[in-house]
Task: inverse folding
């Protein structure tokens, strides 16, 4: 049943919206989540499970260091799996090595224990690796992965325990705005009165912005990215997330069930179409077997598509929109929403309840696009 009123309405029931609601409710706030389908049905349940601190700028490293702390804390408290099995970036030439040395310096500055390792050390971590072309690797054992289904569900259930209402199959149809102030939201199930809204719809963020009459230029576009999972192999064979920019910007790891999950940088868009393509299947098969030749004998069980909701610099838009009271956005994660979610939830909850945050939210300023002040492009694969 749609409540008559809520102090705060979060639009979007993916991991970002759910964790924001969880954090607000944990702080005693009256919050409702509106999700047009079911919780996690957008990008969240289609993601590749990875959670990393290996970024190439200070802001994302700080945010992800905090996010990993929260992933560890909540996985233990809420009893879902977060495995710190590491991220292994394979490096093939001197230019790549120099770039990653700079990245490692930034990461080490904030206590992230990334280090450069030899091809032989990389093979000790993943014995099936083909290291014939690799000259080094960037390795952080505290990066990891989590089950998007179990973790999102756990956050949702805990948010409800704290008093949040998560309303599925409740689609936003419009806003009620008077003199620049939000008074309510129109949905397919009626109107809910509110004064504070968070747009956490990621791939659909520009559509919600348009409904709210937001004039600020926040370029977020949905791009189709695809993934596969293979038949199971012996558990523990490939523990870390393996990244190869040389071979298709590929990423792959092993799930707790034993299958290999991953994708490559084959991108289509902007589009809302999620039909899997043969071209992706051909690319992922080729690139995966260049990284680990033994994978050529595996059957692919399933392929699917999801969205990278991309901005021009691959960094999200997070912050308050000043022209409308009180409207916040946390969207455009460009493939990083799952891993960033717990820290982003803290950031947004701080902005709403305190008006400020200790996390570097200015890096994600939604107004940077309009000013032409793009950030350095966030390190991205897949």
Result:
């Amino acid at each position: 049943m749609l409540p008559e009123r809520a102090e705060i309405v979060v639009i979007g029931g993916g991991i970002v919206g759910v964790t924001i609601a969880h954090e607000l409710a944990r702080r005693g706030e009256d919050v409702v989540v509106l999700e047009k389908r079911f919780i996690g049905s957008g990008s969240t349940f289609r993601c590749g499970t990875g959670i990393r601190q290996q970024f190439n700028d200070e802001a994302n490293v700080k945010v992800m260091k905090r996010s990993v702390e929260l992933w560890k804390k909540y996985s233990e408290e809420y009893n879902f799996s977060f495995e710190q099995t590491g991220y292994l970036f394979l490096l093939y030439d001197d230019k790549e090595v120099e770039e990653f040395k700079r990245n490692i310096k930034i990461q080490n500055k904030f206590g992230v224990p990334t280090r450069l390792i030899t091809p032989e050390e990389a093979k000790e971590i993943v014995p099936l690796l083909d290291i014939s072309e690799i000259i080094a690797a960037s390795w952080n054992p505290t990066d990891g992965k989590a089950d998007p289904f179990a973790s999102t569900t756990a956050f949702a259930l805990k948010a409800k325990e704290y008093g949040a209402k998560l309303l599925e199959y409740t689609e936003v149809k419009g806003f009620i705005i008077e003199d620049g102030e939000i008074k309510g939201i129109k949905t397919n199930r009626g109107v809910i009165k509110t004064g504070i809204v968070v747009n956490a719809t990621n791939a659909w963020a520009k559509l919600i912005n348009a409904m709210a009459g937001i004039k600020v230029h926040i370029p977020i576009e949905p791009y189709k990215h695809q993934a596969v999972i293979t038949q199971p192999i012996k558990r523990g064979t490939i523990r870390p997330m393996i990244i190869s920019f040389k071979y298709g910007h590929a990423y792959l790891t092993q799930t707790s069930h034993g299958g290999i999950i991953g994708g490559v940088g084959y991108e289509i868009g902007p589009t809302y179409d999620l039909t899997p393509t043969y071209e992706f299947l051909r690319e992922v098969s080729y690139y995966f077997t260049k990284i680990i030749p033994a994978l050529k004998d595996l059957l692919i069980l399933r392929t699917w598509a999801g969205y990278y909701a991309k901005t021009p610099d691959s960094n999200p838009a997070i912050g308050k929109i000043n022209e409308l009271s009180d409207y916040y956005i946390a969207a455009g994660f460009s493939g990083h929403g799952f891993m960033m979610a717990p820290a982003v939830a803290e950031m947004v909850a701080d902005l709403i309840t305190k008006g400020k945050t200790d996390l570097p939210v200015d890096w994600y300023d939604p107004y940077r696009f309009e000013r032409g002040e793009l950030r350095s492009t966030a390190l991205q694969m897949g």
